[in-house]
Each structure stands twice: as C-alpha cells, then as structure tokens.
Amino acid sequence: MNLEVSIGKLKLFNPVMVASGTFGKEYGKFFDINLLGAYVAKTVTLKARIGNPPPRVTETFAGMLNSIGLENKGVDDFIENKLQELSGLKIPIVASVAGDNENEYAALCKKLDGCRKVRAIELNLSCPNVRHGERIGLIAQDEKAVYGIVKKARGSTDKTLIAKLSPNVTDITVIALAAERAGCDAVSLINTFPALAVDTQTFRPMLGNVIGGLSGPAIKPIALKMVRDVCNKVRIPVVGIGGITDYKDALEFMICGATAFQVGTANFINPEAPIEILKEIKSYLKRKNIESIKKIIGSLEI
Ligand SMILES: Cc1cc2nc3c(=O)[nH]c(=O)nc-3n(C[C@H](O)[C@H](O)[C@H](O)COP(=O)(O)O)c2cc1C
Q1: Is 210 inside any structural domain?
Q2: CA distance 256 to 302
Q3: Which domain holds residue 123?
C-alpha cells in the first residue's frame, strides 16, 4: 500500500501532519512520532513574544478557544535550542513563522533557509495587518499583503513554502490564488475563527484576551467546504486543517482534494489521535482495496 504524498519538494511517507501550536515532542511518550508524515512546529517570530494574558484556553461545545498570542522565544532560540530538541525526529520538520510585514517574513525565511533540519516553512498569515501604523484586520484577509509576503518569502528561501490561510474572509479562494501567484508551493487551511465564551458566574469572558480562536470538531464542516473551494481553484497542493478528530474526518478532506492534512485540537483530547488516524486510514484502504492514497485525493463525486 502506498501512502506517499508530495508537497512541493517535500515527500511525505503519509499525509498525516500535526498542526502548529497543538503538538510537541512530549507526545513521543504516547507513540513513535517518526511514523507520522510531518511535524509542524509552533509559530515563531523574529523576537520573543510573551503572549496574551491568562486564561488562554477554554473548552467549548465541540471545540476549544485559544488566545495564546504567539508566545515564543524567537526564531534564534528555535534554531539554537528547539531544533536540537527535535534532533531525534527523522520525519520532515515544518517551521512556522509569523511577522508584522514582508520584511519580517523574509528575514525569518532567510534564517530558516540555512537550517538543514527544517524541510519546509509554513507562513502563518493570521497576524494583524498594520499599514501606516493602523491595524487593518489580518494579513490573511488582504490579498495584496498575502501576495507581497509570499513573494518576498519566496525570494528568501528555496525550501518548500506553505501559506497558511485564515477562514475569516469573504472568499478564501481569492487569497489562496494570490498565494499561488506569488510562488508558494502549497496552501494550508484553515486557522481558527475568532470567538467568545462567557462565564455566567463571574459575568466575565472565559479568556484573558476576551476573544480567542475557535478550533475543533465545531469548525470541521466549514473547513471542509473551504478546502473544497480552494482545491477547485488552485493547482498547488492543499493541506486540510480544521476539526480533524478521526480517520473519517481526514478522509473527507482528502476526498475533497487535500493532498495532506493536519491534526490540531484532537491532540488535546486524545494524544494518540494522529497515529490512530494513520492506522485506520491504512485499514480503510485495505478494506476498500485501494492501493494508493493518491486515488482518494479529489475523488468527490457530485
Ligand atoms: C492551543 C492552540 C495553539 C495554536 N497555535 C498555533 C500557532 O502557533 N500557529 C498556527 O499557525 N496555528 C496555531 N493554532 C491553529 C491550529 O494549528 C489549527 O490551524 C486550528 O486549531 C484548526 O485545526 P483544529 O480544529 O484541528 O485544531 C493553534 C491552535 C490551538 C488550539
């Protein structure tokens, strides 16, 4: 049985990836991470960030809200320390970066371009879009900003480049096409939806930052629709993300055209979710007598 898929120059032994910010090497206590397709690291920025005030996560019906606020020690620490900690990993490591503007994304890509251990870079575009000192939504909501950032990032690295898109847009295909035109190798979608949860005892928001990002099973059908829409428009591979909890969820994304997928919130519910999904996809293909996972990609019949 052949589970191999390709994203740009990246060859994955199977399409199972873990989503940025939801997984760490400590999951190695539960299963052999080297059995997965790829490992996406938590987003890093040029300089360290302290993140948002606590509480930063709260459970909601069929999902969770988080407002981590991109806490991280900066890209240099990632290169010097985090990558060392991941040295036991043989599967591709995808670094994830976020910045305030084109120059920051380009600088991040340039730094990571020199790291042998990093096989691909995911551009987290769900960052505030600042123009003339004014915040105007998210970068991922602005077709021109996405084009400019991907273009400059492309000029800064030869590594496989994945643009991670936000669902908080009128038409995600417009943004995906801009990323494709600018030269990225793949798009991944979706990131979280802005959302709110309130504590009825205290009358206060559940999160210190008031607003958080909704993820988990609640967002899956919306993510799936967006992935299908994007797959129908772009020629580059699409990585499906959003509420994938079991193998059927994952297959739905692939049937709708995703080349690979990422498991996020499910890791908090069941730390073995990614490996269970992989095993069950194998059993499914065997049962159905399908010799290559590629046969599944884009097989939706309407
Ligand atoms: C606690 C938490 C932290 C996250 N941190 C990041 C991050 O650093 N960078 C990023 O691109 N996405 C981050 N995400 C978004 C996920 O990677 C993913 O896009 C989103 O949660 C949707 O997938 P899911 O429903 O499977 O969780 C985070 C999500 C959660 C729940």
Answers
A1: no
A2: 11
A3: 5-51+70-195+216-295
Which residues, 6 or more positions from 63, have their beta carbon under 8 angstroms from its beta carbon?
A: 214, 215, 216, 217, 218, 219, 243, 265
| pLDDT 10s digits, 14-33 | 999 999 999 999 999 999 99
User: Of the candidates 293, 140, 297, 168, which has an alpha carbon nearest to the alpha carbon of residue 231?
Assistant: 297
Count of alpha carbons within 13 angstroms of residue 117, beta-carbon side: 18
User: For atom 7 of ligand 1, which residue has the closest CA?
Assistant: 21
Catalytic residues: 127
Say whether pLDDT at 231 is over 80. Answer: yes
Q: What is the pLDDT of residues 104-114, one digit of tens each?
A: 999 999 999 99
Mean pLDDT over the full length of the chain: 96
Once rounded to an integer, what is the mean pLDDT over residues 35-50? 97
Pocket of ligand 1 (CB under 6 A): 19-22, 42-43, 57, 64, 66, 68, 70, 96, 124, 164, 191-192, 215-216, 219, 241-244, 264-265
Ligand 1 atom index nearest CA of 243: 25
Ramachandran region, residue 298 (left: φ > 0; alpha: ψ -120 to 50; beta: rest): left
CATH number at 83 reads 3.20.20.70
Q: Is the residue at 207 inside a domain? A: no
Residue nearest to atom 12 of ligand 1 (CA): 20
Q: Per the structure, how many domains does the chain have?
A: 1
Beta bridge partners of 120: 94, 160
Q: Which atom of ligand 1 is the closest one to the Cα of 126?
A: 11
Which protein residue has the closest C-alpha to ligand 1 atom 4?
A: 21
Region 131-150: mean pLDDT is: 90
Q: Which tens digit of pLDDT belongs to each residue from 185-222? A: 999 999 999 999 999 999 999 999 999 999 999 999 99
**Prediction pTM value:** 0.98
